[in-house]
């Protein structure tokens, strides 16, 4: 049976020569590379559109190259090696049209920013559409279509650090390989995960980060390699006994587990608090307030209150690794000492406060006194008949204590003058004027009912009631009726009294004379007379009853 020939398009596709042809695969290794501390750059000579070139860089862990300084420009010059051709940079137009007035002309780096300290544009006017940038051996930046393939592209790889190239050793050539596929022996710096192969001694080293931080060349197997290559990898001293290289460390340090690094004896020590180097070993120590346990590494708390007597003034409380001093109730800690709690801290005193055993006492400034109705408040006070007024210099208003009147004094300015309440007849009996007030007192037999009025003391009041003028004690009897008050007589009344007394006396004399005359006159029928003792003749004589001699008294 005769087979039909395959269609021509399929045949060409099988040979890799189909219509349009498949593009050749992107090389995995750059044609050239260079590393500068934290950045590496690779050049790929493979015709690709912008998008494919960008994807190829990303597969290797990088991105299309950004040229932000002359340092990056110098790296391009080294990589090109005077070869002609256009290479994609990581610049793509982010605007509808270019803007020649801007430093990047409206383009943006593939990293998403427009930051740069450098540009080197070839002359060009404004262009619109999808535009990307290439660079050539003249190092000029040229705009072009992103779909049109360039001759190649430049990739950039960024790292956190790098290993320096190994120092040259006679008879020991080194070949380096980078993680982005570049190989060679002329690198100045190598990124992490790079390898260095030394075939002469069958050694392969790797740039890796160590436990202590930082990148350095090493290998998985412990111990030193030949001392003539990078000191055998020893951090300290490399020495060879026979054909076996060994590392040693200075005093105060010990060899690490890798047999090459040097570290402190305290590295990895089990000390709970502190580790102190002692030669090539260590000693554990504890913080103050702790003691070293029997295991020699852990620390136990010390009861400071029990170890040191009278550590605190009043109360000692042990804490983890220390102690605290406290005070008894009613005391507080002030600068490390226990002091009685001042009640004045929370007292509502308006002006001054004084601590007293039972609590606090409010006081006032000069010119004020405690308000009797509110002991925490202060009122103006004057204990003389005249005091300076309390004046506000801002409002020019003056105040006086209660019971005083504001008065202007030419010599002393505004003064407060006491009001004499006694002149106002506030008290019915006795009144004593005081600065700013007055006091009423009652006569004996009376007592004060309130501030002003007196009432008579009754039997129901008992012995405790008194007038206010005299205190309790022996009292003279009090009449049931108060005698009238003594009053001065008018002169006319005196004249009237005198006339009345004289008239009464004259009447009494007239009545007396009349009675005497009546008793001594003889009766009409008898002619007897009454004779006295001067009569010489003595004899019986008729005498009226009641008659007497002149020596007798009526």
TrEMBL record:
Signal is among the record's keywords: yes
Keyword Membrane assigned: yes
C-type lectin domain boundaries: 36-147
GO molecular function: calcium ion binding; carbohydrate binding; transmembrane signaling receptor activity
Stretches assigned to the EGF-like domain: 418-455
A cellular-component GO term for this protein: membrane
CDD domains: EGF_CA
InterPro entries on file: C-type_lectin-like, C-type_lectin-like/link_sf, C-type_lectin_domain, CTDL_fold, EGF, EGF-like_Ca-bd_dom, EGF-type_Asp/Asn_hydroxyl_site, EGF_Ca-bd_CS
Keywords, alphabetical: Disulfide bond, EGF-like domain, Glycoprotein, Lectin, Membrane, Phosphoprotein, Proteoglycan, Repeat, Signal, Transmembrane, Transmembrane helix
Role: Endothelial cell receptor that plays a critical role in regulating several physiological processes including hemostasis, coagulation, fibrinolysis, inflammation, and angiogenesis. Acts as a cofactor for thrombin activation of protein C/PROC on the surface of vascular endothelial cells leading to initiation of the activated protein C anticoagulant pathway. Also accelerates the activation of the plasma carboxypeptidase B2/CPB2, which catalyzes removal of C-terminal basic amino acids from its substrates including kinins or anaphylatoxins leading to fibrinolysis inhibition.
PANTHER family for the chain: CHONDROLECTIN VARIANT CHODLFDELTAE (PTHR14789), THROMBOMODULIN (PTHR14789:SF9)
Name used for this protein in its record: Thrombomodulin
Annotated gene: Thbd
